[in-house]
Structures are given as structure tokens and as C-alpha cells.
Amino acid sequence: MSLLERLNEDMKLAMKNKEKEKLSVIRMIKAALQNEAIKLGKELSEEEEITVLSREVKQRKDSLHEFEKAGRTDLAEKINTELTYVKEYMPEQLTEDEIKEIVKEAIREVDASSKSDMGKVMAVVMPKVKGKADGSLVNKIVVSELSK
Fold it and tell me: What is the reported pTM?
């Protein structure tokens, strides 16, 4: 089942069950996917769909951080709920150990030895973990592995 089909099915269920917040989030995701398809002028591949979903997750995490910093717990709770719904459509996330293995492999692959090689390592790692790991976590792991 494609992502769009899954979203349509979940949208119908959310309507039947009168889940307004979930319905709203599904509509936002669908709109983001459709806007990206229009922008690219073609149907989205699975990888492009994951990119759009990752962008939606990142936007919500940024908003959550800002709302918490401003002490707006009401808005933070709303964004947290949205984040939960969006994450349902993301691929299963890698564990920290799995990311470390990918990073170590990339370090060997590009023969990195210091923090100055971080760009090379990130360029190899990010396509492998796209949509399956948070970029800031990957960055932190790369820095710690290159510091050893």
C-alpha cells in the first residue's frame, strides 16, 4: 500500500471516528505531498515521500522547541500530538547502535581520521539513514566517533 493510499484510508477512519486532530494532520501531510509533487512536476518516489515526511517532522520538532522555550505548554502539547501522528507514517527509526555501525563503516570507507573529515563522512551516512534517523543525532554520533 502506497503512502497516499494509506493516508486516504486513515483519513476515512479519522472522519468516521471523529478524530479532528488526526484528520487535520493527515490533510496537512497530504497537502505537503501534493505540493511537492506539483513542484517537481511528477509523482513522488518513496524516497521523495520520506523527504517530505522528514521535513514535516523537523518543522514540528522546531515548533515544539520554540513553544517549550516560550512556556506555551498548550501549543507544545498540540504540536507533540501532531508529531506523534506524522511519525506513524515514517519508516522505522534506526537505533543508536545501528547508526554507530553505519557511521563507523562510512569512516572506514572515506578513510576519515579527524573532525575535518566530518563533511565526507556525513555525505556518505545521510543517504543511508534518510528518514530513518534524526540528522542531529547522526551528527552527534559522527562527531563522537571522529573524536576517538
Answer: 0.77
